[in-house]
Amino acid sequence: MASAAREQWSSRTGFVLAAVGSAVGLGNMWRFSYLAAENGGAAFVIFYVGVTLVVGLPVLLAELVVGRGAQQSPIRALQHFGGPRWKLLGGVFVAAGFLILSYYGVIAGWTVRYGLIVLTEGFGAHAADRFGEIATGWDAFGFHVLFMAVTIGIVAGGVKRGIERTAMLLMPALFVIVAGLAVYATTLHGASAGYAYYLSADVSKLLHWSVLKDAAGQAFFSLSLGMGAMLTFASYLGRDQHLPNESLIIVGADVAIAFLAGLVVFPLIFALGLEARVEASTVGALFITLPQAFAEMGGVGRVVGFAFFAALVVGALTSAISLLEVVVASAIDGLGWSRRRAALVSGTAITLLGTPSAWSTDVLGVVDQIANNLFLLGGGLALSVFVGWFMRDPVAEARAGAHGVPWFFLWRWLLRFAVPIFLIFVLWFAVPETWHAIRGLFAS
Ligand code: PFF
Question: What is the pTM of this model?
Answer without folding.
Answer: 0.96
